[in-house]
Write a structure and sequence with these properties.
homodimer; 209 residues; mainly alpha; Arc Repressor Mutant, subunit A; 10 helices; DNA-binding; HTH-type_TetR-like_transc_reg (chains A, B); transcription regulation (chains A, B); TetR family transcriptional regulator (chains A, B); transcription (chains A, B)
Chain lengths: 209, 209
DNA sequence: GAGGATAATGACAGCCGCTGACAATTGACA
DNA sequence: TGTCAATTGTCAGCGGCTGTCATTATCCTC
């Protein structure tokens, strides 16, 4: 099914991601040069840029994959579910799959530490937010499709998705900036945040949680 | 009150912002070099980088100012208002002030066109999102202060602010990517989106708007 | 299994964003 | 007016990124 050429490319790409992650995590993103990454994999700098459009991309490669998985999960849900419910359920059910997909490329612990690097590196944080926005737009299209609304005219798909992804990013950030990070902890924090979406918007916060 | 030196700096900064905006709007962000901006104001490239940390900063200078105004508006509101209400009211009441503040630096129409450039330029969009995130964090602190909650423990300030700014960014984007842009239109679109925050989260979208 | 078509890589040159260092100029203030 | 501090220009240089072209490696067919 896959020729030698194809497999070799895959291996090079994975090696670049792995080497980059290790360098970023140990010595920081800004202080790591593309030359160092390329050298670690024994390819030329030019080759690196044939695999990744820029330095950010290799740092966000795994991250982007997880987000893409989430989107695909949403698309696969039954149409009977209400929009918000659909997003929430997908979140709950994609978690294990994503964990496996990550470990196919890089050790889980390395990825988790990379998440922290992303949060504290302005350039990466910015790129991460932009990438999330792209998926957000695709999500709007999907929610509109599911509900049969025109995404250009009815603001509700936009509003729902914007609020939801805003909260998810916030949760991810809150989790990533803590000391101990684990997939389970991420899941817990994210769920907690999404659950608070309704209460937080209510007029009165008097009642204790 | 201000010495000659001070005034000169102010003038140089404004001139750089203005020249940059004009160049960005007419020939695009990526194709405009810092050298061109510096040359238009007749300063050295090195001087440009003494006024702005990077090329993005000059492009987002006015934008950032408006966001900062909004934040200050929130801080000035009476404590009696509920969190969401406070954000909504601030939005409604800062609009004219912001318009004036913009025109003190650059023609309004130029700024509006610059907003569109930001939306279609990946690097600027990313930086814009990151800057918004910084303000988001400050907003969380402020909302927590107003409600007397611990922003580290209670997720509601985070969740509310994340949802709110997410929707605002989405509204801004929806507005900026249209053909005709005006301040009034922006206000209308933003208000509409924020108003839909509650309905969009409800389980059932059956009822027509 | 030899051949040519095609794809991946390396080497090189060069642009642009950005920074450090130092000297020259300009405004502030006694 | 002279001294001090702030602002600026110049220059050298690094790192991200791209175009180009020759070289090498895989693929496919006969």
């Amino acid at each position: 099914m896959t020729g030698l050429r194809e497999r070799k490319k895959q291996r090079t790409r994975d090696a670049l991601v792995l080497a980059a992650h290790q360098l970023f995590v140990t010595q920081g993103y800004d202080t790591t040069t593309v030359d160092q990454i390329a050298e670690a994999v024994e390819v030329s700098q030019r080759t690196f840029f044939r695999y990744f459009a820029n330095k950010e991309e290799v740092a966000l490669f795994v991250q982007d994959m997880t987000v893409r998985r989430f989107f695909e999960g949403v698309c696969a849900r039954p149409l009977s579910e209400a929009p918000l419910e659909c997003l929430r359920r997908t979140l709950d059910e994609t978690w294990e799959d994503v964990g496996e997909a990550i470990e196919a490329i890089t050790p889980l612990e390395l990825y988790l530490r990379m998440c922290q690097v992303i949060e504290v590196t302005p350039a990466l944080l910015a790129a991460h937010l932009r990438h999330s926005l792209l998926v957000e737009q695709k999500l709007v299209q999907e929610i509109a499709r599911r509900t049969g609304l025109d995404p250009e005219r009815d603001p509700r798909p936009r509003v729902l998705v914007a609020a939801f992804t805003g909260v998810m990013l916030s949760a991810g950030r809150h989790w990533g900036l803590r000391d101990g990070v684990s997939l389970e902890e991420a899941r817990r924090v994210t769920r907690e945040h999404v659950e608070q979406l309704g209460p937080a918007l209510s007029a009165d916060w008097r009642q204790d949680r």
